[in-house]
Structures are given as structure tokens and as C-alpha cells.
Design brief:
Length: 334
Amino acid sequence: MGDPAGVGPEVCLKALNSQAVNEYCRPVVFGDASLLERVADCTKQSFAFDILPKDNCQPFDGEKIKGPSVYDFSNVDMNAIQPGEVSAGTGQASFEYVVSAIELAQEQSIHGLVTAPIHKFAWKQAGIDFPGHTELLEHQTESKEVCMLLTSEDISCSLVTTHIGLNAVSQALSSEKILKVIRLTHQALSQIYPEKAGSIRLGVLGLNPHNGESGLFGLNEEAAIIEPALKAARGLDISVVGPLAPDTAFIQANRDRLDAFVCMYHDQGLIPLKLLSFDSAVNVTLGLSITRTSVDHGTALDIAWKGLASDTSLQSAIQLASKLCSPIVLKNSS
């Protein structure tokens, strides 16, 4: 459900009520039923779903889910919660939803998870040390190779570094890490777009203005770190182009000839992606043992509970997760 004070609850309600979503999967929102009912009233949405009290549903049996449902944690103080006002309480609530979903996905009690936006400062207020979903997923699943891919019909970008300051990016880069992201991106695109599996072509960005002008700008990261990763990727028969000068990497000609861009830091990839695909892009965590996708937007506290938030990104994330989920037989099924 994401942070209870943000737009997560209302876009989750839209998804539960969506005929298209219910054709992809059997959606279950992990959240607080009382809060969702309150948001449904505020946003004039239907709230005719099966309510599954968490304490009464142990163990969780995904095969018993027959229609849109709410897995009710009852963990929000309804007297304290206000739309657009995050707190330690809303941070803790959203954290509990995600951790439970991860555990059930690992147990194969659910096929995968799609996350609504959390508020990173609310997590910090609650004493949660993870800066975001990706880092939590990496820790909980004990995954060794993880990266973020944001994908849409118009553009796809994967990130070598994520939630760190710009002053820390150069030190965080390595040829091994860049090669890992190239491999994971190539593998994921081959799965998402099987018709392109034999012809995936990736563009890898440089770090510095004008690719450093042969060491004039920066610490010569392009020659010392990025180019060796490209050479190693070509040795694995992965088609890569680069390093691309960041200021011209995303021109139309490059978007036409390349299937995805491997970006060195968060905003290098997300600025062009959100410019082109703000409402439709999906965040996929690559390298996990479970399927996880997410919306590509934040909590939008200024419009929370007003019925203004679009659920396009959430619906796209659900559709992609349904496509990526392995055809596992859920635990407890007969």
C-alpha cells in the first residue's frame, strides 16, 4: 500500500477496482483496511473487497484468494493519520507491509510483489536504516547482485548506483559493478521483450561532462572504469555502445537504436525517463530471487487522498510483474 499518508492507498484502490488488473492476476493489497475504506470514501471509490485480517490468516494461503482482497494489518492509528502528513507511524506501517510481502514471496505463498511509494524520511523517523525498497529487498533476500531498471515503451534505464549523494558516485563505481548491471539489464530485457532476445543493444553512459575530455574533467573514470566493463561485456557477447556522452545520450537517434541505457547514477537515468514516461514507467529490481516491480513516482503528499493521483504506473507495474512471475505452484495449494 505504500505510505498511508501518500497517494499509495488511493492508487491501490483504483487497481483493486480495475477490470484489467483483475484479468492479469488476483490482486491483494497489504495495508490497513480501515484506512483504505476511509480513503475510498474521500476519493469516491468502491470498497467491496474481501478483507483478510492478518492475525487470522496464518499461514497465508495465496491459493484461497479468489478476487481483489485486502490483507489487513490494522496498524495505522486512525485518530492520528492525516493525508499528506508522514510520520514515524506511517513509516513503520509501510515498512511492515513490504517486509511481510517479501517474506511471503520467498516462501512462495504469493507469486510476486508490486510496491506503492514509501516515504524515505518517514522510514528514517521510524528508525529504519534502509534508504529505500531496493536496499531492503537486497538485504531481506540476501541477494548478491541487485540493480534498478526503470522501463517504459519510450525509454529504459538501469542504474549502477542509486540512493547516494553525487559526491560519492565516483568512488562507488567499479568495472565489476558496471558489468553486473550490464548483464542484469541484458538478461531482464530479453525476458521482458522475448522478441528482441537475440538483438538487445545497450548504451552505457560516461560519468563526466563530454566523457571527461580525456581526463580533463573528473578522474578519468571513463577510461579507467567504464571502458574495461564494456570490453568485458563484449566478451560475453553482449552488444554495448559507449561510453556515451551524458548530455547527448538520450537523443532520439540513440533511443531508436538502443534498447536501454546503463546510467552511472540515479538522476542521470531518472531525469530523462520521467520526462518521457512519468505516468507509465515501471521500476523493476533485477537480480532478486523473487519478482518485484514498483511505480516510478513518489508519495505525492500534496495531492494525497484527493482522487487526483493516476494509477497508470501502478497498473503497468502489475502487468509487468504478472508477466515476469515464474509459473510457481503456491505453497499450501492442493
